[in-house]
Amino acid sequence: MPDIVLATLNAKYIHSSFGLRYLLANLGALRERACIAEFQINQAPLEIVEAVLAHEPRIVGFGVYIWNVVQTTEVLGMLRRLRPEIRIVLGGPEVSYEWDGQPIVALADHVITGEADLKFAEVCAVLLGEDVAARAALPKVMPAGLPALERLVLPYDLYTESDLAHRILYVEASRGCPFTCEFCLSSLDVPVRAFALEAFLQAMQGLLDRGALTFKFVDRTFNLHLPTSLAILRFFLDRWRDGMFLHFEMVPDRLPDQLRGIIREFPAGAVQFEVGIQTFDEATSKNISRRQNLTRLEDNLLFLRDQTGIHVHADLIVGLPGEDVASFGRGFDRLVKMGPQEIQVGILKRLRGTPIVRHDMEFQMKYSPVPPYEMLENRDIPFVEMQRMRRFARYWDLVANSGNFTGVLALLWQDKSPFAAFMAFADSLYVKLRRTHQIALPVLAQALFDHLTGACAVPLDLAAATMMQDWNRLPGRESLRLSGTKAAETEAPKRSTAGSRQARHLTQA
Predict the structure, then answer these.
(1) Which of 329, 350, 381 is the last residue of a domain?
(2) Residue 36 in 3-state DSSP?
(3) What is the predicted pLDDT for the residue at 486?
(4) Which H helix or E strand runs over 400?
(5) What value, to the nearest 5°, has the Cα angle with vertex 206 and ends 200 and 211?
(6) In Å, how far from its chain's centre is CA 338?
(7) Longest pairwise C-alpha distance within the chain
(8) Does residue 221 share a domain with residue 188?
(9) Region of 92 on the Ramachandran plot (φ > 0 left; ψ -120 to 50 alpha; else beta)
């Protein structure tokens, strides 16, 4: 039985815990005495407790994040009651800042704040050692500091064959961020540190040799250092195979000619760029200490859309200090014109430790007291309007980001403001359904059709033909009959394996 169990609760099964694999890889002599136990937040806490105790561990290390802190607290409460002798060590961003007074911290023996890759091994060595005085001297909360990356053992060999087949593989070529955006934890970790490129690419080759196809880079600014970005892109392009998919977070206003040249060479839909725009309002950007060149950003996004096959996922945030609904809407419309395949509309979260709290009094920022600590209202967006924006974000994800209704969307706003047009639909949909989840696709299709032919005054035949074109673009769907028109009936198409959002966006006309 392992002495050390490294555990966390992932949001979904498809996710793999990158942090736990780093901890295990860097346990040194203790590596053979440890194992990883991954769970999901929707699992019953009693089942998780049972699975952890089945290993009979002496130490359990939990990775704690904004999405799992509530469930992990419940699990730890049971572990404490059942096996108080087990030493519980916590780490992760949710317990690295403002930890004093947190219920989950009260249940732990020790908390390691920051990047615990090496510090966790040191703590485990003391806890498992014979020196009683050393164990007693361990403080409850211990800062890890920033480990020298050249000292770290890379964790990629710990991805199992099952991981390669069924899970997202997270990789990183660097850590840190040069920007100081006040809503983001990365603003607290300013130094950008790069892993040795040769060793990193050798590890990527190892994953490729084992059949890996999907690589999600967690680097905050992948395109910051041009020679490294070019080398990594060339590495994957030279080894390209069908089914491969790469995801990068990019600085949106930095896309020099050398990068433009190489990304043109990738197959359509094979690479996704996540670009964090967050706001187009200059005063708001100044409030949150965000620097970006909007003119260059717009040129880059238009280039990506018009001249490459890159799938663009762009982020905007509702609730930033100083931005009201009208300002957000103008920025949203501006972004829609740039043509990204997905626009992720997020509600501002008050992450522990971030300096966004300095605006609380001036802008009357009120956040939920429970994870994920989303904005409830502020000076410029009252609660009722914030709720409308939440529904807007959810319905936009279902309708637009899903790639299911690309033709219908164009009819929805035509020459009008996309933001205003979709908000009108979101309001009407909520009045009709009174819910934002568990909406079947045919129900959504009918609601869109009704709104087009009603509030938007789109001719019935045009609305029906466009809906059917969208519906039939992707095989594998049930037959659809839209009430109010016989012409809208369709036979069920044949099955297809193209199920991802990226694949659906690729098939748009």
Answers:
(1) 381
(2) strand
(3) 58
(4) none
(5) 130
(6) 22
(7) 82
(8) yes
(9) left
Beta strands in 173-287 (DSSP E): 174-175, 193-194, 214-217, 245-250, 271-278
Is 432 in the same domain as 341? no
What span, in angstroms and rounded, lies between the C-alpha atoms of 329 and 283?
Answer: 15
Q: Does 195 lie in the same domain as 343? A: yes
Is the same domain home to 145 and 208?
Answer: no
Q: Which two tokens stand for residue 503?
A: 């694949």
- Rounded-to-integer distance, Cα 18 and Cα 13, Å: 13
Is residue 290 within 8 A of residue 278, CB to CB? The reply is yes
- What is the rounded distance in angstroms from the CA atom of residue 485 to the CA atom of residue 263? 45
According to DSSP, the residues that pair with 318 across neighbouring strands are 347
The CA-atom distances, in angstroms, between 232 and each of 223, 311, 312 are 10, 18, 19
CB atoms within 10 A of CB 114: 18
- State the residue range of the domain holding 71: 4-149
d(CA 399, CA 390): 14
The string of pLDDT tens digits covering residues 44-53 is: 999 999 999 9
CB atoms within 10 A of CB 5: 24
Instruction: Kindly report the pTM of this predicted structure.
Output: 0.92
CA distance 287 to 283: 6
56 lies in some domain = yes
Strand partners, 36: 6
pLDDT digits (tens, 9 = 90+) for 289-336: 999 999 999 999 999 999 999 999 999 999 999 999 999 999 999 999
The upper half-sphere exposure of residue 257, i.e. CA atoms within 13 Å in the direction of its Cβ, equals 0
